[in-house]
């Protein structure tokens, strides 16, 4: 079986990170959530490159009073599948402390051709406690090393893809985008700076129909990368990357509805075809 080409691996990783949203993108903010605010999101996404379908994925997010979890799965389709094929899964879970996400664990598995890679990250108090990549990647003398300092005050990619908006007003607004986020994906430490761009209206084939807030995304690599690598330079230079965020019912949490990433071969896009969220009622103890 031919080796899955580098281009296909990169496009699949973009789709996976977008669904987790890593990748290339991830995002988080402070939150003041009512004590009984709980919600669940069941979403399905399609990925395309220059208008051609290249992948599909699904994402489930659960938010309760003091904890959260998310699971994602995706696979290449169409031409991407025919020239090598790839699929992946990811999970994250953590607590909600002082109105903020506090991730505890993150696991990502990516399969391409006959190869597979598993990344595990354990976190606590905003810091990385342990991280592994299997199989262990080869060392590169040109790679900027990740130090203990780089592992502090960070989010995993999946937790970082969920925006938590403070306040009591409509969470789908400009304030959701005004932040810079520190992400560690197990290999690379990078910053994602968000800026408000505009408001849009969307309608999924199933589920959400309403306003989304569009954030511009600016990627800055910090450590764990090779400075001369063309793909890193290209993404860091982009000024037209966007994430469209929609609300999860019953919470002040926003999740990606659409991601657009310019590439040398055309626009890469990940868009929800289904975005079904529902408010859940918090359980309370009753006395007789």
Describe this structure in words.
This is DUF3108 domain-containing protein. Residues 1-37 form the signal peptide. Pfam families: DUF3108 (PF11306). The chain has 288 residues and is mainly beta. The protein contains 4 helices and 15 strands. It has one domain (6-279). It is 11% helix and 52% strand. The protein has a 15-stranded mixed β-sheet that branches. The longest helix is centred in the N-terminal third of the chain and has 15 residues, at 6-20. 41% of the residues are buried.
Averaged pLDDT: 86
Give the terminus-to-terminus CA distance: 66 Å
Query: Which series of helices and strands comes N to C?
Result: HEEEHEEEEHEEEEEHEEE
Q: C-alpha Rg, in Å?
A: 18 Å
Outline type: globular
Q: What is the percentage of strand-forming residues?
A: over 45%
Layout of strands and helices, then pairs:
Blueprint: H1 6-20, E1 37-49, E2 52-63, E3 67-76, H2 78-82, E4 86-97, E5 100-112, E6 115-124, E7 127-134, H3 157-160, E8 163-164, E9 179-184, E10 189-203, E11 206-207, E12 209-223, H4 230-237, E13 242-247, E14 253-263, E15 266-281
Parallel strand pairs: 11-15
Antiparallel strand pairs: 1-2, 1-15, 2-3, 3-4, 4-5, 5-6, 6-7, 8-14, 9-10, 10-12, 12-13, 13-14, 14-15
